[in-house]
Every structure is written in structure tokens, then in C-alpha cells.
Amino acid sequence: SRASTQKALSFDPTSATALASLAFERGSHYWQWDEAISGLRQAATKEPWRATTWNLLGTTLRRAGRFDEALAAAREARHLDPLARHYTLQV
Description:
Blueprint: H1 2-11, H2 16-30, H3 33-46, H4 51-63, H5 67-80, H6 85-90
């Protein structure tokens, strides 16, 4: 996935989806929570309508032990895509 993300960023360095993917990887694989959260917040600011980014942010916040913030991000994902079952189950 990293190679695909890097290729996407070579086409569009401001791609919120690619930035979110890299940030999530940073947290999931390298436990760099602050950098991951910052990158995911940046991606969510660029495209606030993208439920997937809010879900990734919520997951990362939960893994970092920031549960209140994680719940708020998960609720935003559910709000943006109420039919996505996995968002509903996290709240």
C-alpha cells in the first residue's frame, strides 16, 4: 500500500486520501501516534466529508489511548456515512 500511496502523492501531493493513508500507516506500523494523528487531522480538514478518514482518525486516537477524541471522530464517521455498518459498531 505504501508504494501505491507514494505514487498517488507523486501525481497529487495534496491528496487527502493519500495523506491519510500514510498517516495511518505511521501510527499502525511505527506507533508514531502524534505524527499519525496530525496527518489524519490534516487530511480530515482538507476533505471533511470523507467518512473513511474520520474512521481512521478515530481508530488511531483509540490506539493512542485518547478515547474521548476517538469517540468524537467515530461519531463523525457514522454521521457522514450512517449506512456503513463498521462505523456504527465502533460508537
